Amino acid sequence: MQKPLILVCNDDGIFASGIKALTQVASKFGDVIVVAPDKPQSGMGMSITINKPLRFRKVDFDHAQEAYATDGTPVDGVKLAMHKILSRTPDLVLSGINHGANSSVNVMYSGTMSAAIEGAMENIPSIGFSLLDHSIDANFNPSKTFISKIIEHTLTRKLAPHTCLNVNIPALPEEAIKGIKVCRQANGNWTEELEERFDPMGSKYYWLTGKYESTDKTPDTDIWALENGFVSVVPIQYDLTHHPSITNFEHWPFS
Amino acid sequence: MQKPLILVCNDDGIFASGIKALTQVASKFGDVIVVAPDKPQSGMGMSITINKPLRFRKVDFDHAQEAYATDGTPVDGVKLAMHKILSRTPDLVLSGINHGANSSVNVMYSGTMSAAIEGAMENIPSIGFSLLDHSIDANFNPSKTFISKIIEHTLTRKLAPHTCLNVNIPALPEEAIKGIKVCRQANGNWTEELEERFDPMGSKYYWLTGKYESTDKTPDTDIWALENGFVSVVPIQYDLTHHPSITNFEHWPFS
Question: Which residues touch A1 (CB under 8 Å, ≥6 apart)?
Fold first, then answer.
């Protein structure tokens, strides 16, 4: 039997330590091809490149059959991989391990999760992994056991068509993590602070910064799971329709 | 009574003719502040700028109280407007009129719709408008009647909390448009063609192109509405949870 073909991508760039850890775990399950941005692409969402052309080049990468650095966004990378790099349709798309959380509404801004969503659009079982630690020397080792379990079960049990998983892992020692919890995306929002500064010419500029706040912390949410020491798994789809509103609109005169 | 404060934004850039048409319509309903990218930002999705600072500058703009060009993405622009430019919370966020369709899954890649979704995250009634005509000299006049109706009803009837509308308008003469249809997002996908070329140094590069294909054309979808001469209105939310899968996962050993 042919080994599974696994596409590994991310948004922190091909030189980030998170994608090295993920590739190492993935290599236990099949042949791994890495296709990742040549520079950090955090917060790129589902961005695609349409006003300039794209390139990719082969690079060395431990535990991978082949690896390519692209000059596009995370979603561009999945499209390049699917249509120009891989010799056949992959059995699995893995994205991450992201340096920092992608829980709650952050899934909408996340390049890591957007790459997984692009995989789901192509109807390939896809998983995005994020560790709740932004630091450059984050310890990805405790994550590996949980990532292995989730990959194994995804390969054997499959996911619903056109869905992917958003997996977030608390920054805790392995023995302190209480388990894996399947949950829903918490609602929440960013309290933005656009930090005002002046350049040497006296002109204003702004750094986008802020604090994420969730008021939605019932035990069925990813935020609750993470705050209580669980790995959170949110099954993700990309139908944005607010179905209850369709019925409400029947009272609008124009429908 | 205070006039409504309306924020107008887009992804085609502040010099596109679509945003001029939208601002003209919006000005009938309140005080309009335009905040839009200083260059085209199509396909930027929910992308935010975190690795470099942002700037904005005042520009002249017909039918607007004030207008600002930003050097960020469409979503950056909404954040700048909300937290640094507007003197109070707007009553309405309008995005567009986009040059080209944002129906079906294209809502996920669209900068126009992402700006509206950012408005919804801030719990402001928000609407993204798109005309099914990419050309630089697209005729936005037939759209104006329908846009007026939809703005009027949104201001009086309100939307469900944290939702926005995705409005697509067929490129037809006004009298050929059959009406407005509230519908769901059709499923579909892009058949990518990454067009391969060689630069003068002999290196390969790729243009991301392709064709959108929908196999989901029942009369309750936006694709059906548009193909049958209706303006499509899809109510949009941003909870990506695939709720039916949560139950399925109860059979996974780790949950």
Answer: none
Report the candidate in A46, A148, A35 with the shortest Cα–Cα distance to residue A107. Answer: A46
Compute the C-alpha angle B7/B8/B11, nearest 5°: 135
What per-residue confidence (pLDDT) applies to A191?
84
Average pLDDT on B3-28 reads 97
Asked if B242 and A237 touch (Cβ cutoff 8 Å), the reply is yes
Contact at CB, B182 and A108, closer than 8 angstroms: no
Which residue among A53, A236, A250 sits closest to B205, beta carbon to beta carbon? Answer: A53
**Interface mutation target, options A183, A254, A255, chain B, most CBs of B under 10 Å:** A254
Which residues, in sequence order, are CB contacts of A122 under 8 Å at separation 6+?
A78, A82, A89, A93, B189
Determine the Cα–Cα distance for residues B200 and A20; give it in Å rounded to an integer: 35
- Give the count of beta carbons closer than 10 Å to the beta carbon of residue A169: 27
| A237 to B240: CB separation less than 8 angstroms, yes or no | yes
Q: SS3 of B247, please?
A: helix
pLDDT at B254 over 70: no
pLDDT for position A29: 98
Asked whether the beta carbons of B148 and B222 are under 8 A apart, the reply is: no
Q: What is the mean pLDDT of chain A?
A: 94
> What is the CATH number that goes with domain A5-187+215-251?
3.40.1210.10
Task: Quick: pLDDT tens for B147-171.
Answer: 999 999 999 988 999 999 999 999 9
Tell me the pairing of strands A92-99 and A56-58.
unpaired
Task: Please give the model's pTM, rounded to 2 decimal places.
Answer: 0.96
Cα–Cα distance measured from residue A188 to residue A192, given in angstroms and rounded to the nearest whole number: 13
User: Which chain A residues contact residue B73 at CB under 8 A?
Assistant: 47
pLDDT of residue A214: 85
> In this complex, do B208 and A50 lie within 8 Å of one another by their Cβ atoms?
yes
Domain regions of chain A by residue span: 5-187+215-251
Alpha helices in chain B (DSSP H): 17-26, 74-80, 111-121, 141-157, 222-227, 243-248
Q: Is domain B5-187+216-251 classified as CATH 3.40.50.2000? A: no
Complex-level ipTM: 0.95
3-class secondary-structure state, position B6: strand
Query: A207-250, pLDDT tens digit by residue?
Result: 999 888 888 989 999 999 999 999 999 999 999 999 999 987 76
The beta-carbon neighbor of B185 closest among A40, A239, A250 is: A239
Contact A110, A116 (CB under 8 A): no
